[in-house]
Design a protein that fits this description.
- The protein is an alpha/beta fold.
- The chain folds into 2 domains: about 5-290, TIM Barrel; about 295-395, no CATH class.
- Helix content is about 45%, strand content about 15%.
- The chain has 16 helices and 12 strands.
- The strands form 3 sheets. The chain has a 7-stranded mixed β-sheet with strand order 2-3-6-7-8-9-10. A 3-stranded mixed β-sheet has the order 1-5-4, with no helix packed on it. Strands 11-12 form a two-stranded antiparallel ribbon.
- Helix 3 (about 105-115) runs parallel beside helix 4 (about 130-140) and helix 12 crosses helix 14.
- The structure holds iron/sulfur cluster.
- The site of iron/sulfur cluster has 11 residues, from loops.
Length: about 400
């Protein structure tokens, strides 16, 4: 366990809210019981200055002491139901501090009380402690757990993720969570250049995760934002893989604020992972069958349209018309939501029925302005179909 110092903080606000579900975790709300992370991953984006984390990122952990009470109050006043994500890319809900504080567990109890779908991002097997409550939530709502895993060699894991769970326990976690009724995705990001991004390693990692029962795998390359994050990572490379130091310097020589590597690497990685995904046929986004029943129809359609666009973009298919439909739909929903009151029960019922009603009356086409797309959407919402992005078919 890392040698963390816990800084207690009392907060006034816990939930981050979005008008539309985010396309990555498919959630409307999110919060983190902690700031900074004792897992100490060498590549962690959270070290970047833009997140304003003060102190030593791996050791000075901010503990949001009263988060459970703030959450309770905020969820009581929610206008719309929707999935809630715990954690973010820059902190982990099951980092070592959680053993002591149990804040994440207390927050899960609150979410269970409000009967809300839950998403969790983690690199820790401490989540096993909460299988009882996760399985309880999963009885009536979707629970998606995103497990981060980028290497199969535990010696490499120890260098780059010193206080996270071992490779073996993370792989075993997939089956345990599935048995508890959760959906499980693998965040296969960031693959480490020169160390873990070869075709054979990427394929083997995907194969292992799928064998254990992963529902989807999201691959991604390493970003290094100039400043603390990049300096910290390169120091680790210098210590353990000095032979790659110059290659890394060259690959990230553009010092982009996004942390992106040079275009050639991005293109090569995208092509390689695209070819592997195509040949192995698995989902690289949260599948429709996973989130379909946990969103209002209005949110479900938004995510579907965005995922469709992402898929077409990846395949090089023209999406200008689809983008216009998304824009027009978003404007329509914004207007509808402005007119809704604060009554959660009324809002829930209205938003659940909204898209089937629009499909039934044909009004969906005046919003999407695309007959073929409207026909396809109507089949999903009127015939209870699910869209399979792997085969691009309705099932
Ligand atoms: S587990 Fe996630 S948030 Fe924590 S240090 Fe690692 S990458 Fe950062």
């Amino acid at each position: 366990m890392s040698d963390c110092i816990l800084h207690q903080k009392y907060i006034k606000k816990a939930l981050r809210k979005n008008l539309f579900p985010d396309n990555f975790t498919v959630s409307r709300y999110s919060f983190s019981p902690y700031m900074a992370c004792g897992h100490g991953c060498a590549y962690c984006d959270g070290r970047a200055e833009k997140y304003y984390v003060v102190g030593d990122f791996d050791r000075d952990i901010v503990v949001r002491k009263n988060i459970e009470n703030v959450l309770l109050k905020e969820l009581s006043n929610l206008r719309e139901k929707g999935p809630v994500t715990i954690s973010s890319g820059v902190t982990d809900a099951y980092q070592p501090a959680e053993e002591q504080t149990e804040l994440t567990r207390k927050c899960l109890e609150v979410l269970s009380y409000f009967d809300l779908p839950v998403n969790l991002l983690t690199k820790s097997d401490l989540i096993e402690r909460d299988l009882d409550i996760l399985s309880k939530i999963a009885l009536s709502n979707n629970v998606s757990v995103f497990i981060s895993l980028v290497h199969l060699d535990d010696r490499i894991r120890k260098i780059f993720e010193p206080y996270a769970a071992s490779v073996e326990s993370r792989l075993k976690l997939i089956g345990k969570l599935k048995n508890a009724g959760c959906s499980v995705g693998i965040l296969a990001m960031p693959f480490l250049p020169f160390i873990g991004d070869s075709e054979s390693h990427v394929r083997t990692l995907f194969t292992s995760a799928l064998k254990e029962g992963a529902d989807f795998i999201m691959p991604g390359y390493l970003t290094l934002r100039p400043g603390r994050q990049k300096d910290y990572y390169l120091t680790r490379i210098k210590e353990y893989f000095p032979q790659y130091l110059d290659d890394y310097r060259q690959m990230y020589s553009n010092n982009l604020q996004s942390g992106n590597p040079i275009k050639k690497y991005r293109d090569d990685f995208t092509q390689l992972s695209g070819e592997i995904v195509e040949s192995m046929k698995f989902d690289t986004m949260v599948p429709h069958r996973v989130y379909g029943n946990s969103l209002h129809s209005s949110d479900e359609l938004f995510v579907l349209l965005c995922q469709l666009k992402e898929n077409y973009d990846r395949k090089g298919i023209e999406t200008t018309r689809l983008s216009r439909s998304i824009h027009s739909y978003a404007k329509y929903i914004e207007k509808v939501k402005k007119e809704l009151g604060r009554d959660i029960a009324r809002n829930t019922e209205f938003l659940d029925k909204l898209i089937p009603d629009l499909c039934r009356t044909g009004k969906i086409n005046t919003i999407l302005k695309n007959e073929k797309l409207s026909f396809f959407i109507s089949k999903i919402f009127l015939e209870n179909k699910t869209f399979d992005f792997k085969t691009m078919n309705l099932v």
